[in-house]
Amino acid sequence: MIRDISVIIVAAGESKRLKSKVRKPYLLLKDRPVLRHSIDVFKSIPSVREIVVVINKKDTERAERIIRRVSCVVRRASGHRADISTLTPILLVIGGKTRSESVRNGLEQVSVLTGIVLIHDAARPFVNRADVIGLIKEVRRTGAAILAISVADTIKMTEERKNHKRKNPIIKNTVTPRESLWSAQTPQGFRKDIIAKAYQYRQDSATDDAFLVERLGVPVSIVPGSANNIKITTKADCNILTD
Description:
Order of helices and strands: EEEHEHEEHEHEEEEHHE
Radius of gyration: 19 Å
Mean pLDDT: 87
Number of domains: 1
CATH class: Alpha Beta
């Protein structure tokens, strides 16, 4: 049985859509930075042997302060290690210009003992521990799985109007059946050999990791997640920070 699990938390984005001086992973949520919430969830799962946090270079000191507060080993990809012991070491890796480049940087640093890799967006601080455990079980069984929720709304596909004076698009068709539509979340989990191969042929335009695995022809299972596992993207989403 594959036992060792590494978690890559992607926290390297510029948060441009947020239009805030502080990037999303470091906004305070219930007196803790957004990034800290995800770290705490993964640290509480015994099979997670390491956490790789991919950060923006500008946030190195801020990220190290957060990690020290959870009493973890702070280690940079350069090999520097702080004198703090824990069962769940945390490795800081500098991200790239795109999400896929950042994930690849994280993959290059996971332990050689790792059998399964979970990839999670730091902007999803409300991920549920039970959902993660369910995801891990499915990845052990099938090799590739993601958390997702079924789509409740009617989805419309659009096209641009031929009359360029009208800016709003028009409906091209309604996507049916709705029952087969799912909204992808993170974490997404894969056997390390599968996700490593997928990232050999990565596309910088890929919005999630499962897309790259799908291109290999590998079936990806869906594990029902929680509607609470939302992603902080814009200022409107930040209303949750003060609720």
